[in-house]
Amino acid sequence: MKKQKHTEDTPEVNELNETVEVENQPVEKSDEQVADEIVDELEVMSQKYSELNDKNLRLMAEFDNYRKRTMKERMDLYKTAGEKILVEMLPLVDDFERALKAMETSEDVQAVKEGVQLIYTKFISFLLQNGVKEIPTEKEVFDTEFHEAITTFPAPEEELKGKIIDCVAKGYTMNDKVIRFSKVVVGE
What does the alpha-carbon distance between residue 107 and residue 101 come to, in Å, rounded to a whole number? Predict the structure, then answer.
């Protein structure tokens, strides 16, 4: 059994159909209404632009302040970085002053020599504690990464060719970085 479609419309249904038809039809707006909507949109966009621009300026100012602050902190760090090492060296200066004073009045050369040797040992220990190491040179193969050849000399023995014969000035590394190259004489 099929249901029959109800063809008679009540006045309420007719009114509803008319309302739906009116809503579906495009509504034409006047030029003033369109202009007002554009002005409103422009105002909203202008306000958003102002907010974003303000945020951007504040962010740039914050970043500039951060950059200046970190640069100042870095400069302060550079100024005071050597302070610790210098403070640790002051006892060595005191030892040298005592040794110099002892040299003036002492007649025991051996005692003065031992005192200076103790100061030297203490200083080398200080350097090692701060990561400074001597670059080995004696009979080592010449290496431009660590050595600077000031001259070449005929090798006294065949096995010393290309090796270091003499060290004129010791070289040092600090934390595996060369801070002074060894000045050497190389056998040829």
Answer: 12
